[in-house]
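Thread title: Can someone regenerate the structure for this chain?

I was given the following input by a collaborator and told the matching structure tokens would be attached. They weren't. Posting the sequence so someone can regenerate them.
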Amino acid sequence: GAPLLGYEVYIDRLVSGNFELLGLASPSCLEHVCSINTAALETLPAGRQYCFRVAGVNVVALDNPLNDQAPKMSNTVCPYAADPPMPPAAVYFAYPRPGEIDVRWPPTADDGGAPVDFFGVWMNAAGRGWGRIAT
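Best answer:
Regenerated them for you:
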């Protein structure tokens, strides 16, 4: 076939059930995480689910006057668009036994538009730098 020129990224906003072109990505995206039209992505409100598909584009797809060569689409992926959750309003510590610390917090007031999967707990022991100790 003809050489790959890039990728078309399509979105279904789960309103009409139709995919529309969101943006174009370069062919180097095959093995790398790529940025497409970030202005278009920023218009997606948090707290909703969106579906995406990707199609490879070559000269056959671009220069087809009959428009009878539809791009071959990837499988559909449907993540949630969300903002990071707010931190807990309070953190409580208890020392049940020497060398142990219990850390507890109430649920966050704002999940950012998607369920919170886990919280990370970091500790700075004696000023030696912050490190994750639990999730």
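Strands lie at 4-12, 20-25, 48-49, 51-58, 80-81, 92-94, 102-104, 121-124, 130-134.
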